[in-house]
Task: inverse folding
DNA sequence: TTGAAAGCGCTAACAC
DNA sequence: GTGTTAGCGCTTTCAA
């Protein structure tokens, strides 16, 4: 059994209270007494029992984070980086981080959040990968439990969040391709229902509309966010006639998967087809060819989300409870060069033809 | 404030004790009483306060896991997958998972482990990425705190672990390249000090020695496990004359980084140079070309590590406290075809020449 | 079958 | 300055 405060007090010849206050750094303990208590504590290797302390203080100094795991082969660089950001920030404020895993959606997930909220086990929660209608947010809000989300929601709920401006980011990327002469731009959308995918898809549509370029429904396919998924669904875009001259992945992982698959079909990325992604995960810079994408400072987002939650828990007013970060466009080789004039002409022709058939 | 057991008891018109026992499912409560208590609890949305329970029970039903974070741009697919395995397994046994982050090495890290162990906040710890001389293991062992590690150590310590047989795996890969006719095989080693890197490097040396192929010291360079790192240090191998005809990354990330960089130099992977990795992370199958590598079931390892720890905590004897998993060789395109005979001849020539100059 | 009481290890009013 | 006392919310002997 670990050494308790009572034992320290006994050996130092003081009361429990005095020992407690000495170690907590209160001013009303004689310097000499404090010295003695501290040295006894050190000698005994005393470590306060956090559970007891937390029961007494009615706060756990622990943040909760429920990782949405999508099955065994779960490996999203996004989460490890986000987690590192949250974890390091929590650390530096002396908060612990309790991580649970749970499959997204379903009643079980809601229960998990409820338990976390009501069990008194964590002071606040971090919610990630918000959905259009997110029962987690509703539940927490309803129980008035403190949380900060990474991501917005379409429900009419007021809550603090950090989010990327996915639509604005995507508009940058689409415009970039349009400026290079592309007009038939395919889009591998994240699963419907995920909020970030919604905004990214919206940005794509907005940019196309702003240029008066119609979007054919079949240019938009949906992937499961994984590299494998990107590779699979890009086949459907490849099969189109005429096929898109540029393809945007709703996240980098899918973009990279798509790129690899297209290469296996003998296409030259950047010349035969331009590719863009979203996230700027580390592999994006090192893929072959390097991927044009939108940079999202995930680590920073993790930190900021965590900071907001800690501020919230400590009753500090938030400077801004709705943080929206604009992703930065990173142009790399996968966008290729501008389409050659003659080819561009051809594109436009085809575009008009398409329009007619619509 | 959340509803307490006392409140449930009051409303059900029973004592605190009875309420507690009814909800805990003890047999010595009248069925009728139990019904009443349960319905009151449900109506009030009672959730037991876990902190109080844990203080009383002197166990937290929480596992600890300290993530070694190496700075902001931390994103190792390994960890998210391992974490998912651990988390899901913990979940299914009703354990929580407390995740901390800490930079590896240094006294601070040791203290973090000590605090976790002594603070009574977690029942046991999972230690990952063991080092040749690992103060974490020593500290925990010394304080007799339950833990299971993913990885062995060179210190003379008896503790339960799950580990890959990195040497055996690497021997498979090296032999594969040797069988294809390669003789000058470069190796991008993981940072010295990390146990898994030690075994992988050892396997490389063993396989070369078993074939009586000398290893030039400059064939071995050290990378930082990242894709970027792999790309950077492969330059040193590329600069060698004669340069290696095959290059093995100490992990997939570095192998992929190296592969991309070599391609940027105009080399054709598989023909001009063969590449192999280790881990079989998801991107490996989808890289361009797909990467020959050693499959390591990280999710399973996470689960198994977690199971072992839980067994340990519950006093169940471990079937086997030293689990060693043999990675499976996955041959993909990056290994290329066998070297053509004439080229192979040339290789051997050069090898002998090298030997002479040694 | 139920309840009273003790106590897990700690903190914090409140007295002295 | 220091000690006494009363909990935090729960589980668990032990009596009734």
Result:
């Amino acid at each position: 059994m670990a050494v308790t405060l009572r034992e320290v007090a006994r050996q130092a010849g003081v009361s429990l209270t005095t020992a407690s206050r000495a170690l907590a750094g209160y001013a009303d303990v004689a310097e000499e007494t404090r010295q003695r208590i501290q040295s006894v504590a050190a000698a005994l290797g005393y470590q306060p029992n956090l559970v007891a302390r937390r029961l007494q203080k009615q706060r756990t100094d622990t943040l909760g984070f429920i990782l949405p795991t999508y099955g065994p082969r779960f490996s999203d660089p996004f989460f490890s980086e986000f987690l590192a950001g949250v974890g390091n920030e929590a650390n530096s404020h002396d908060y612990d981080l309790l991580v649970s895993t749970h499959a997204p959606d379903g009643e079980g997930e809601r229960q998990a959040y409820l338990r976390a909220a009501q069990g008194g086990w964590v002071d606040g929660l971090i919610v990630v990968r918000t959905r259009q209608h997110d029962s987690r947010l509703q539940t927490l809000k309803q129980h008035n439990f403190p949380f900060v989300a990474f991501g917005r929601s379409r429900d009419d709920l007021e809550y603090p969040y950090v989010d990327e401006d996915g639509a604005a980011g995507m508009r940058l990327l689409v415009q970039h391709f349009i400026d290079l002469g592309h007009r038939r731009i395919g889009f591998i959308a994240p699963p419907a229902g995920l909020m970030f995918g919604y905004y990214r898809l919206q940005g794509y549509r907005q940019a196309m509309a702003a240029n008066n370029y119609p979007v054919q429904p079949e240019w938009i396919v949906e992937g499961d966010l994984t590299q494998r998924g990107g590779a699979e669904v890009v086949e459907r875009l490849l099969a189109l006639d005429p096929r898109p001259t540029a393809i945007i992945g709703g996240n980098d992982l899918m973009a990279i998967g798509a790129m690899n698959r297209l290469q296996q079909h003998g296409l030259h990325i950047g010349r035969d087809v331009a590719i863009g992604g979203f996230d700027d995960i580390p592999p994006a810079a090192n893929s072959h060819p390097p991927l044009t994408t939108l940079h999202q400072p995930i680590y920073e987002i993790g930190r900021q989300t965590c900071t907001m939650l800690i501020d919230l828990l400590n009753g500090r007013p938030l400077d801004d409870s709705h943080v929206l970060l604009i992703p930065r466009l990173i142009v790399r080789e996968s966008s290729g060069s501008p389409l050659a004039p003659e080819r561009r002409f051809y594109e436009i022709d085809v575009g008009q033809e398409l329009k007619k058939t619509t």
About this structure: The longest strand of chain A covers residues 62-68. Residues 4-6, 16-17, 20-21, 24, 48-57 of chain A lie near DNA strand C (CB under 10 Å from a C1').
